[in-house]
Amino acid sequence: MNIHSITIEVAGADDIQPAESFYRNALALGDLVGVQVATQPSSGFRGFAPSLILAQPDDVDAVVARALAAGARTLKPVAKSLWGYGGSLLAPDGTAWQVASANKTATGPATGDVEAVVLLLGVDSVKASKRCYQEHGLVVAKSFPAYVEFDSGAIKLALYKRAALAKQLGCDPAGSGSHRLTVVGDEEFTDLDGYSWVGVERPILNRQA
């Protein structure tokens, strides 16, 4: 099973156009991210974070600079880490994003290309959620006790414990209500942690409630 896109919910109809502009222009995600008006309330951390994987540290700096200029806020400043170079930010609509490169130092010129988009889901049990997604046809690409990644098409799916994901992002893990996220894949279901999926037969990109 594949992920074709994700749809992020915003507070009201007036927030649709700014959010679409942010994702298309600041993050250059094209049709991978759609926007719709929220139908249920939420507060605090929504439990997930899409991650942009870029080729070079200079690419990370450029994307983060565009995002901040377009109204995003820094959650964790860009820096070198054990795994590479990156940081996290809060989009104007309240969605936490991670921007990173596997390279700590430049190995070539910046290209501006997004190498991968990974949807990081904070879950109650990585083991149970892994089994749930395998039952729905997702193929495991990497598997560790605290992290699982699936080969899921245009957007990769990865599972973390919710608190661990919040710590990685540099935000408070507390939150309640709707995730304000819908995953557009090959079938419709709701996972163990309440993340909603819809099939490609019922696309919801850029739809107002």
Write up this protein.
With 209 residues, the protein is α/β, with parallel strands linked by helices. The chain has one domain: 2,3-Dihydroxybiphenyl 1,2-Dioxygenase, domain 1. 20% of the residues lie in helices and 39% in strands. It contains 4 helices and 15 strands. It has helices at 16-26, 57-69, 126-135, 162-169; strands at residues 5-10, 33-37, 42-44, 48-54, 73-80, 85-90, 96-101, 114-123, 139-144, 147-151, 156-161, 175-177, 181-185, 189-190, 196-199. The strands form 3 sheets. The protein has an 8-stranded mixed sheet. A 5-stranded mixed sheet has the order 2-1-13-15-14, with helices on one face. A hairpin with a 5-residue loop joins strand 6 (85-90) and strand 7. The longest helix is centred in the N-terminal third of the chain and has 13 residues, at 57-69. The chain is globular, with a radius of gyration of 16 Å. The mean pLDDT is 93.
